[in-house]
Amino acid sequence: MTTLEPTAHRADSPRDPWSQLLEKVGKHQDREAFQSLFQHFGPQIKHYAIANGLPHQAEELVQEVFISIWRRSCLYDWRKAAASTWIFTIARNQRVDLLRKLRRTNKEITVETEDLWQVPGEQEDEPVTSLHRLMSERRIRESLVHLPEEQITVIAKVYMEQKSHQTVAEELDIPLGTVKSRVRLALKKLKVLLQDQKS
Amino acid sequence: MTSHHPDTLSLMEYSAGTLSDPHALCIRLHLDHCPHCRSRVDALDSLGAMIVESQPREPVAAGTFDAILDRIDAEPAPGAIVMPRDPRDALHKLLDTDDLNSLPWKRQLADASVFDISDYFPEQSERVVLQKLTAGGKAPSHTHRGTETTIVLQGAFVDHSGVFNQWDFVVLDQNDTHKPVAVGHDDCISLSILSAPLKLTGTFTRLLNPFIR
Ligand SMILES: [Zn+2]
Fold first, then answer.
1. Per residue in A52-111, pLDDT tens?
2. Is B112 contained in some domain?
3. Shared-domain flag, residues B195 and B140
4. Which residues of A touch B57 (CB under 8 A)?
């Protein structure tokens, strides 16, 4: 169901091609680079919108994400996040924002989406951690390929279908505890799970 | 079960963007002050990006890129306008205040006051409250019917399971009966999301439960 193509070369180089392109957009408003990013990430984001239950707003979401990428590209720092990660968080934020707008009652929302959902590397006081982040990304990418299908399925549902662990449990008709333990197992293998007391 | 950091599953739901506004707010306030959890979220964000990358693609409509270019042509170049940054965190912006102590607190018990901010989250069925315990003050012993997610915003409190300092994150459920005491010189202010009303356990039971609307 979910195929994970090994694309380790992207994380291996300190400056993967997408991050280089994104820097060009940020530094020089390079439209050719912007178009290359659009051609690569646009179809992924459109699928992301559809999977998240926004088929009618999918094109709108793609547009909003790329407008946001254009506007914020000057803040992008390749040492703090891979372009794909940074773009993922922008897409997530735009999706959250779109849903908040669709659900908006007549009450004014006083807190902006961006105040709640953080984009990596925009915390000015953060020390530069390129090596740490490259190692962690490579580790995740390499171990992701070896995860059992059932673990990838639950993680993909959380990320792609905007589902809580509770909803995933109901959908797959398995106990919430099983969903949680699958996710915990997966995160342990990916070495994301470092600090939890129960694991 | 308490933990001073959010657990990885909650951080994953944060990274995936599936949390409600108040839960995202609690996590964000913690992240603003916890480099350790920020780096966990960074790792989860990379995981999210790799998951998206592993999925099928959906062709984008022919005119979309041109429509985007038209829009960016109509606005100033990025970085041309520097918006003054509001240095306040999400909660202070939401409440439009610089000082949590000056909010219209409602005193419920000698040492305990609350300020209900559920109305700021109209789509939310859960209760969202700020709670203040006067320095040295004791809250009544209570347990929780659902789960209570709390982040300490100012001061510190202790209960049987330890000391909770500013920006510490705690999740309590029906198995936890606790009796928090504010320690230190400052009043202890915390933000809590309550999935069900509290149940007072001790001699305070007959008092009006401050956490029932
Ligand atoms: Zn933390």
1. 999 999 999 999 999 999 999 999 988 888 999 999 999 999 999 998 888 776 566 668
2. yes
3. yes
4. 43-44, 46-47
Q: Does domain A1-123 have CATH number 1.10.1740.10?
A: yes
Judgement on whether residues B191 and B112 belong to the same structural domain of the protein: yes
Residues B39 and B124 in one domain: no
pLDDT at A126 over 70: no
pLDDT at res. B207: 43
Residue type, A37: L
Q: Where are the beta strands (DSSP E) in chain A?
A: none
Q: How far is the CA of A151 from the centre of ligand 1 (A)?
A: 25
Q: Which of A43, A85, A117 sits opposite B60 (nearest CB)?
A: A43
Which class in CATH covers the domain with range A136-199?
Answer: mainly alpha
Shortest CA gap A173–chain B (Å): 19
Parent domain of B101: 90-211
pLDDT digits (tens, 9 = 90+) for A132-165: 778 888 888 888 888 999 999 989 989 998 788 8
- State the Cα–Cα distance between residues A104 and B95, nearest whole angstrom: 18
Q: What is the pLDDT of residues B112-128, one digit of tens each?
A: 999 999 988 887 788 99
Q: What is the pLDDT of residues B178-189, one digit of tens each?
A: 788 999 899 999
The CATH number of the domain where B63 resides is what? Answer: 1.10.10.1320
- List of chain A residues whose C-beta atoms are within 8 Å of the C-beta of residue B39: 129, 132, 136
Residues B103 and B133 in one domain: yes
For chain B, the domain total comes to 2
DSSP string of B40-98, one letter each residue: HHHHHHHHHHHHHHHSPP-PPPTTHHHHHHHHHHTSPPTTTS-PPP--S-HHHHHHT-S
Q: Which of B51, B161, B168 to mutate to test the interface with A (most CBs of A within 10 A)?
A: B51
The pair of three-digit structure tokens given for residue B34, joined into one six-digit string: 């916890």
Q: Torsion angle, CA of A77/A80/A82/A84, rounded to 10 degrees?
A: -80
